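Worked example 2:
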Amino acid sequence: MQTIEIRNIGPLVETGNVPVSQVMLLIGEQSTGKSTFMKILCFCCWLEKQVMIGGDSIVSRYTHYYRFWNELKRFHHLNDDFLSDSSYIKYDGSAIQIEMNGKRRNARIVRKANFSENKHNLKISFLPSERNLLSSIQNIENLYRSKDVDVLFNYILEWGEARAQFDAAHPLNLVFVDKMKYHFDAKNGDVLTLADGHSKIKPYYASSGVQSAMPIQVIATYLAAEVGTSAKKSPAEYLKQFDHLDPKDVKELTAVLSNMLSRSVYRSFHMFVEELEQNLFPKAQFELVKLLVGLLKQMENKSTGYKSSVFLTTHSPYVLTALNVMMLASVAYEKSPGRVKDLGLEEYVLPSGSYSAYCIKDGRFESIVDEEYDFIKGDFLDSVSEMVDSYTFELNSIIYGNAEG
């Protein structure tokens, strides 16, 4: 099982050793470290991928010249002030371990004993909270410029790959709004077809909710479809694999081909989404959660041998509630598969232990999953209700008088 531990980085004081589940939810007030945690975890997953599909040069590159931290902060817009001499990261992945201890220390990367068996290729995507810029700023792919490749630039590139999969003949039915379809064509760019089947608009003119949710569904659907397919490889890169080989050495040729296969075929995906609920009505939030869990279920059915994952940050009790329904469906399925199927929830049933949820308070992680009843506790998110009830009682007392008066 993958785990990660972070200490004294930005607002994060102590996470403890956090298991990486198929569905991970983070809640907490603003500026408590939810995004910081996700960015570090995403970068570690990405670096593990590079080591698994690359050679020794990758390990050497990220264990010298403070490159691990420098590229992490550059790509994810972190600041040097986030680090101190007591900062610590330990990532224990499926194939490698990464450890960084202190502000001016290089990272240590070690291949695990089962590296050869567990190495594989995967798709990784980080959807930032700024994702609606794709729609709200026309032609942003031509306008956005960055000194280096950063999370926004990479997101724009991924969007270009993902949207190309949905043309007019194969549009995507959007789950978070009634009877609206999305497709892309080279002439008109992104196109939304409305309920009547004839009216078409650009996302620029759509609601902020559509602008925010559309990239989640498009990219998530694309990532899931990529699992089991081969990564694109240039002819030059392909031929380079055989430059040093003797054509008569069948054993070595077989080894190289096997290595290329493990590198080229995507076996899983990791998707990181900041504030899934952004600009969305509660029902739309529920449908998006269902979509993501359903895609993970599809990956289970593909039987690739590797787990795909979705990581979410939220301030919304409706996202939490939607995940609770999915968790309860998994528990109920063990007792009565037929009744869960009748409810239309069979395609969202993940194995036991697939979910985790944490609240961040004062820089520390606290699990909010009730282990006995297998659901996520919403006390922290709903704590504002107590304050509202208190104010309501006092104000009603002023308006109508108390019971004794």
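The longest strand covers residues 266-273. Residues 234-239 have pLDDT under 50 and may be disordered.
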